[in-house]
Design a protein that fits this description.
alpha+beta, Glutaredoxin, Glutathione S-transferase Yfyf (Class Pi), Chain A, domain 2, 2 domains, 4-stranded mixed β-sheet, 8 helices, 4 strands, globular
């Protein structure tokens, strides 16, 4: 399998953590991708021009980190990061979707900050950051979702927060005081070898 990736992407990190946790990391060849370039060949593998994308051994292509992680979870016999029990499965997938949306909202804030000052919109920034904060509020207030064996929701939350810490620490500030339960959990999960091996640089 070949993974189209770029450094710093929280969704690439999500796939990489999943690959390590499922014991599949050594089966994946990484293809560095500068998706910001207009002539990047990433569009040959993902018409949206986004990473990650995965090229399977038979030539089929998977796009979106959620799809790639779900596929990887079918290839191993270890603990499943997406539970097979229907009720638990849907809760975990919903948590993953919340975390991915939270991360996308933070990315939108960063994109807005990268625009020329005269073109930036406070309304857009505040709306997107509000999404991020509400998601963090909810997770912190519902610590039961952080309990139990590692799942894809946990991975998505931690890789999303890790990206925001890395890229937007000036806005995030002392977030562990604001969301202490989530902060304590994040410190713990960050010690896992899969997270230590994928710290953004």
């Amino acid at each position: 399998m070949k993974l189209r990736w770029a450094p710093g992407s929280p969704f690439v990190r999500k796939v990489t953590v999943t690959a390590i946790e499922t014991g599949l990391d050594d089966r994946i060849e990484r293809m560095m991708t500068d998706y910001h370039q207009p002539d990047s060949d990433i569009i040959d593998h993902n018409p949206l021009g986004k990473v990650p994308a995965m090229i399977l051994d038979d030539g089929d292509i998977l796009v979106d980190s959620s799809v790639i992680c779900a596929y990887l979870d079918t290839l191993h016999s270890r603990h499943k990061i997406i539970p097979e029990n229907p009720e638990t499965r849907h809760k975990v997938l919903s948590l993953e979707a919340l975390a991915d949306g939270m991360t996308e909202a933070a990315i939108n804030v960063q994109r807005e900050r990268g625009r020329p000052a005269e073109e930036q919109s406070d309304a857009v920034r505040d709306k997107q950051w509000g999404k991020f904060e509400r998601a963090m509020d909810w997770i912190n207030a519902n610590p039961n979702v952080l309990e139990g064996a590692l799942n894809i929701g946990h991975i998505a939350i931690a890789t999303g927060i890790g990206w925001v810490e890395f890229r937007m620490g000036d806005i995030l500030g002392d977030w562990k005081s604001q969301w202490p339960t989530l902060g304590a959990w994040y410190d713990q999960i960050s010690e896992r070898p899969s997270f230590q091996a994928t710290i953004p640089e």
